[in-house]
Amino acid sequence: MQVTGGFSAPTARQEAPGRDRRHDLREVLWRVSSDKGLRGCGKSVLAGGVTPMAKGGVAYFAGVATCGKVHICPCCGAKIRAARSDELQAAGTAWECRKCGLAMMTLTMRHYERQALRTLVGQQRDAWRLAFGQNAGREWRTLKSDMGIEGFVRAWECTHGPNGWHPHYHVLFFLRQPWTAAQGEEVQRVAFRLWAGALERVGAYLPLEFDEDGRPVGVRVDVAGRGEGGVLSRYLMKFQDGKAGWTVGDELTRQDIKVGTGGHRTPFEILRDFRETGDAHDLELWQEFEAGAFNLRALYWSQGMRAKLRDLVELDDRTDAEIAAEQQDGEPLAVILAETWYAHVVRHDGRALALLRAAESLGAVGVRTLIESWGLVWGRDVLPAPTTQE
After folding, report:
1. Domain assignment present for 160
2. Which structural domain range is residue 23 located in?
3. 223 and 184 in contact (C-beta within 8 Å)?
4. Would the pTM count as exceeding 0.70?
5. 180/174 Cα distance (integer angstroms)
6. What count of other Cβ atoms lies within 10 Å of the Cβ of residue 281?
7. Which residues of the chain have pLDDT under 70?
8. What does the angle CA 163 – CA 156 – CA 127 come to, to the nearest 5 degrees?
9. What is the pLDDT of residues 242-267, one digit of tens each?
10. Among 139, 202, 150, 209, which residue's Cα sits nearest to residue 175?
11. How many domains does the chain have?
């Protein structure tokens, strides 16, 4: 199955080829997604027509709907994760500048191929509440106080491998003082005991504490060295194309372009494989991921943590939907009437993306040349961009 095309306003970080790959995947989702908003993302016309826009050598479409789905939309998710990643890096750097510390805790759980993702997500959520959340016991509350944990931000990530779905949490701790390696190991030891006990109570399998090489598995705590705070924070929102340099906010946020390791695939890799091969099992896996990731946040902040950071750095208070829908202030190149858009652009694989490339190469001339090559009439099916009179 070969599919290309897609639409939304990219930032500089979303330029081709990454931008093109994301648009290709979204066009696949127009056909196979069970999510109504995602099926119309970048496709449904908001009012009257669609305007190809250009700014700084990057083209995008204004006047189309966006879904704002951070985990399941390759285009909206990329914009949202990029914004959250920038915010996390700024927050981590500012916190560290106060001579405070940061540490990252990763929580995993044992899983098997027969287990549904929705079941694992529910167990993961319930175990968090018991071990570290609103129902946490005295041991964790005391450890937080003794270790100077001021608050946290948590991100959710998921891959799929030979043993099925692998959902896990990355948790960035904001500390009153930097931890030593020994303090990090102590928190890891206690957190593992609490996490394992909570998983058992909610009916999940007990995690392994260490693998055969002695590396932590169920719970891992990494302590940031001096000057690494911004990098560790950015790690939460990973860049997922396997090429971008990792910083800590990226690990918490970037799921749109990551490449899995050790036989694991990210959800978007599963979707890419379906696009290339049409494998029915990959489609089933993607649809299971859509259901399991429904309504999950990109980031979850502990109560009061953002208020503490607001005194140090400017935070991004936009919702995911607002980030996804935000348009750049570019130059309009044409107006594609709604009936033309539906009948002659999105109905044909790759035409929307071809329009973006034409706009980036030759501006309005490129757009007009391309639409006329499709047998459309300039001035009737597609209108010149309106001119602004002073």
Report:
1. yes
2. 12-67+333-384
3. yes
4. yes
5. 14
6. 11
7. 1-16, 226-231, 238-262, 388-390
8. 75
9. 333 334 444 444 444 445 555 789 99
10. 150
11. 2
